[in-house]
Amino acid sequence: MGSKNKLKRFKENETFNNVIQPEREDALAGNFPLKGNWRSSFFKNDNPVVLELGCGKGEYSVGLAQHYPDKNFIGVDIKGARFWRGAKTAVEQGLTNVAFLRTQIEIIYAFFAEGEVDEIWITFPDPQIKYKRTKHRMTNSEFLQRYKKILKPDGVVNLKTDSEFMHGYTLGLLHGEGHEVLYANHNVYRNEGAPQEVTGIKTFYEQYYLEQGKPITYIKFKIR
Fold first, then answer.
1. Active site residue: 26, 70, 77, 126, which one?
2. What is the CATH number of the domain that holds 86?
3. 109 backbone φψ class: left, alpha, beta (φ>0; ψ -120 to 50)
4. Using 50, 70 and 90 to split pLDDT, how confident is the model at 2?
5. End-to-end distance of the chain based on CA atoms, in angstroms?
6. How distant, in Å, are the alpha carbons of 48, 150, 160, 163, 219 from that of 195?
7. Is 77 a residue of the active site?
8. Could you say which of 144, 150, 206, 223 would form a disulfide bridge with 112 (CB–CB 3.0 to 4.6 Å)?
9. 190, 151 in Cβ contact below 8 A?
10. Confidence of residue 203 (pLDDT cuts 50, 70, 90)
11. In a domain, 10, yes or no
12. Is residue 77 part of a domain?
């Protein structure tokens, strides 16, 4: 994407009331006003709060918001020029139950209070296969503990990926650390029983992976 296009998207993001772009330093200093107040101050309802971490273009967040009007969805990503697409679609469709937060996942605890989040989706993350990159892997032990801080006690995490490596790594870690695996499927479109929200929403890249014959995997779990 050209820098002109990026700048145009950044500018347009500033006009969307569903895009929140806080300053990192302010949030880390405890000055993010929506922390603990997403339901009352932003969505103005008592519905469950669901995050999509590393939301990319925001297609999954928007898809979930369309399917589940009685839940609040927040797509989180540091790349605003990417989620511009999802934010714009949500504005055009009048979806009031989806928002986009521009920040790094590693400081997610600065934006949500303890127990404020009901559910987390991680869709097609970079598997970070090289050993030295494991600290960036979104289902490693450190990240799981960050998620646990903001999830309610019985909150769940969903991992949907085309990476068999990421699927296997995460399953092994979950079993090894004693977390609760609620459901696992190494090929959701071939094996029956996958939840509707897993097979009913396909992102652009997911469609591409399927056309290449890559299996799409899924794990639903609770962090203990």
1. 126
2. 3.40.50.150
3. alpha
4. low
5. 41
6. 18, 24, 12, 19, 11
7. no
8. 150
9. no
10. confident
11. yes
12. yes
